[in-house]
Amino acid sequence: MPPDPAAVPPPGDADARPPEAERALQMLRRQQEILAHGISHDLRAPLRAIAGYAQILVAGHGEGLDPRGRDYLDRICEAAARMEELIEGLLMLSHAARAPLRESEVDLSLLAEWSLAELQDAEPGRAAEIGVQPQLAAWGDERLLKQLFERLLHNAWKFSAERDRVRIEVRGERRGGRTVISIVDHGSGFDMRYADRMFEPFQRLHGPEQGGGHGLGLAVVQCIAERHEGRLWAESTPGSGSVFHVELPAPRSSA
């Protein structure tokens, strides 16, 4: 049974926590800030130097290399790009875990429509059937919930690449004081035997040839759901698509 929002102290409510728990939480947040700063500056600077000089070599001296040398240089550029993407994912996960919650009633239908419009704008020639149920709403941090929808809908779009037409549906229902959102796609799907670990960092259910990414996107979604005292789960059949469910607090005015 999901926790009762009225019985669970909000994550940002320091008065509801014992002093020692508040001190431990502040220390943890400080450590996360130090780690995020180190990742952002101390790792990114040398990585960008590697990528920059490799690209200069490709542009200015690539024609003078034999096929093997050019292949090695291309691999350096690809590895640097993957590392940059991984660092970006780690920073996103750190932000999702430590950002203060600014809660209000959030129009989830609008967030889904925005995210889907951005995906369609990026690939205007791709045929798509999109459906978003109107008047879906929850209580939470709009910035983080926007990120949640962006990640889930990006996955639904990406893993529908083998289809002639993208088909995505966003629907929801009220269950007591909770809002349950379901994102349905008809893409490649995944094997449910691996569902228990799919929300852990660095776990991939698809290989690089299918755009498997860095394995942090769903971990970010899981973190955001948990920050809202919610939960995330999925159902899928390989070759037939997936359904991702997110449970969030309903708007307080109508809970």
From TrEMBL:
E.C. code: 2.7.13.3
UniProt keyword Nucleotide-binding present: no
Reactions this protein catalyses: ATP + protein L-histidine = ADP + protein N-phospho-L-histidine
One CC-aspect GO term: plasma membrane
Calcium as UniProt keyword: no
Boundaries of every Histidine kinase domain copy: 38-252
Protein name: histidine kinase
Organism: Luteimonas salinisoli
UniProt lineage: Bacteria, Pseudomonadati, Pseudomonadota, Gammaproteobacteria, Lysobacterales
